[in-house]
Amino acid sequence: MRIDRVELRWVSMPLRTPFETSFARETNKDCLLVRVFGEGFEGWGEVVAMNEPLYNEETLKTCWHILEDVLIPLVFSRDWSSVEDWCRSVRHIRRNYMARAGLEAALWDLYSLCEGKSLATLWGGVRSRVEVGISLGIESSLEQLLPQVEAGIAEGYRRIKLKIKPGWDLEVVKAVRSRWPDLVLQVDANSAYRLEDSELLKGLDDFSLLLVEQPLEHDDIVDHAVLQRSLSTPICLDESIDSGDQCRRALDLGSARIINIKPGRVGGFVASRAIHDLCAARGVPCWVGGMLETGVGRLQNLALASLPNFRLPGDISASRRYFTRDIIEPEVTLEPDGCVRVPQVPGVGQFLDWRALDFYTQRSEVFQPGVVRQC
Ligand code: OSB
Ligand code: MG
């Protein structure tokens, strides 16, 4: 695959309702879309970093910079025999996983068009529909939250995830669990606790949770191992698993019993599949996490979720969970039994709603080989 041209777009979409985690309250979903041209096709990918370095250290501005000044010049430097070939040649670059993942996704999208095969087929997907759940943010009161749980269940979501933080944890989980005794329920702390909070976290064991996601520091796998020994609820790591090697170390240490895989966090779909395979070999269940993706990232995450060891419902809800109008048409919808269809055709570009996309685009720039930009 030779890449002739790359376009970056900064997209900003209003969220239907604010989404609050232990680290931020988001009212808008901003992302970068990466569009690569080559071999007579175009491929699309999404960069899932946030405006501020609150989930990990990257921001959309650092991603733009790494793409513009490092990755895009490299992608023009030669012909790529495969996406794996590209990944090998950027292995020396440190971190900046979300920036890499956005470009890698666009290359996968293009490659799938060249091959005439869907991403799910290329990656060894085994199902045409995947089970999904919904992630509910922190609210100011239970009166605000409980109707959302009720609505999520009524829509058919297969599990509910509650965001927690100190002051919004045991009481909330207790209220939800007592009203819905059989609900598949999990919580996500986004690193809001410390090992000293172990006693409080042990309180979660009373509520038959499927898992507790990332209770401790974003970069920790040592304290999580200590905590896991004292909890019966499985710990699922999100933020702290940023590579296949880190996943192996965490599993060796016993820091988690379940792994959340987000392509952006780990540097792309090649790394995601490697982590998936490692977990499968060790009998550790995985699920596909989310970063409030637009339709572009959402469709590609669905393809990933069709792999066999994604055994728990993913954070891949319907487009309308977050957006009044997504940038793809048709948008992602939930079937009444809580599943979403996996795309069966290559290329997300054909599904773009250009009016919506242009409306939400704040900035765009085209890069071509050999064209030195004037600053
Ligand atoms: O920790 O899983 C997380 C959203 C932004 C940043 C981090 C997380 C989340 C979510 C939302 O939980 C998942 C989704 O996209 O639906
Ligand atoms: Mg999480």
Sequence of secondary-structure elements? EEEHHHHEEHEHEHEHEHEHHEHEHE
**What's the overall geometry?**
globular
CATH superfamily grouping of the largest domain: Enolase-like C-terminal domain
Distinct ligands, ions and cofactors found in the model: 2-succinylbenzoate, magnesium ion
Total helical segments: 13
Give the termini distance in whole angstroms: 30 Å
Mean pLDDT: 97
Please tell me about this protein's structure.
The protein starts with a strand and ends in an 8-residue tail after the last strand. The longest helix is centred in the first third of the chain and has 19 residues. It has 13 helices and 13 strands. The chain is globular. It has a seven-stranded parallel β-sheet. Strands 3-2-1-13 form a four-stranded antiparallel β-sheet. It folds into two domains: 124 residues, Enolase-like, N-terminal domain (Enolase-like, domain 1, 2-Layer Sandwich); 228 residues, TIM Barrel. The chain has 375 residues and is of the alpha/beta class. The mean pLDDT is 97. Helix 1 packs across helix 3. Bound molecules: 2-succinylbenzoate and magnesium ion. The site of 2-succinylbenzoate has 11 residues, from loops.
SSE blueprint:
Blueprint lengths: L4 E16 L4 E14 L2 E7 L12 H16 L7 H7 L7 H19 L3 H5 L5 E3 L2 E3 L5 H14 L4 E4 L6 H10 L5 E4 L9 H5 L9 E2 L9 H8 L4 E3 L6 H10 L4 E4 L1 H4 L2 H13 L4 E3 L6 H11 L33 E3 L12 H7 E7 L8
Parallel strand pairs: 5-6, 6-7, 7-8, 8-9, 9-10, 10-11
Antiparallel strand pairs: 1-2, 1-13, 2-3, 4-12
Bound molecules: 2-succinylbenzoate and magnesium ion (MG).
